[in-house]
Amino acid sequence: MKKCIARTYELTDKGFDYIAPLFILLVRLYLAQVFFMAGLTKIANWDSTIFLFENEYAVPLLSPAIAAYLGTIAELVLPVLIVLGIGSRWMILVFFIYNLVAMFSYSFLWTPDGSVGLTDHIQWGLLILMLLCTGFGKFSLDYLIRRFYLKMDKSE
């Protein structure tokens, strides 16, 4: 009986070990899509973007124009890096900080009418934290680079 239970746990663990990289990839693709689409929206409506950064978003330490440019660049570049899976933990830490700044600089999110948007940012933040803890998984350039250099180290 003990062997049967142990074998069941072993098979379950192996099954989840097998699907975990796919789940991590799906999380990466989801986050990339959300933020990339936000960046495209900023570009498509640049006058509105500048207006929002001047009148709605209270980004600390930056002028509204610089914050608008940096925010748009972040939303267009960081998702590409997430999809490729490169620079995972450092890049995702930047992404986490970006999400926090976005969340706290837009006071509307903290009103009853903005609670849905706040919930979105919290959920994205949790997914970003998950990636910070797990890395980008087997379906990433980071993984391939690591494997390449580990093979080189072993052959020397």
TrEMBL record:
The chain crosses the membrane at residues 20-41, 61-83, 90-110, 122-145. The keyword Cell division does not apply. InterPro entries: DoxX (IPR032808), DoxX-like_oxidoreductase (IPR051907). GO terms for cellular component: plasma membrane. Keywords: Cell membrane, Membrane, Transmembrane, Transmembrane helix. The keyword Transmembrane applies. It is a multi-pass membrane protein. It comes from the Bacteria. Coiled coil: none annotated. It is found in: Cell membrane. Belongs to the DoxX family. This is DoxX family protein. The lineage of its organism: Bacteria, Pseudomonadati, Pseudomonadota, Gammaproteobacteria, Legionellales.
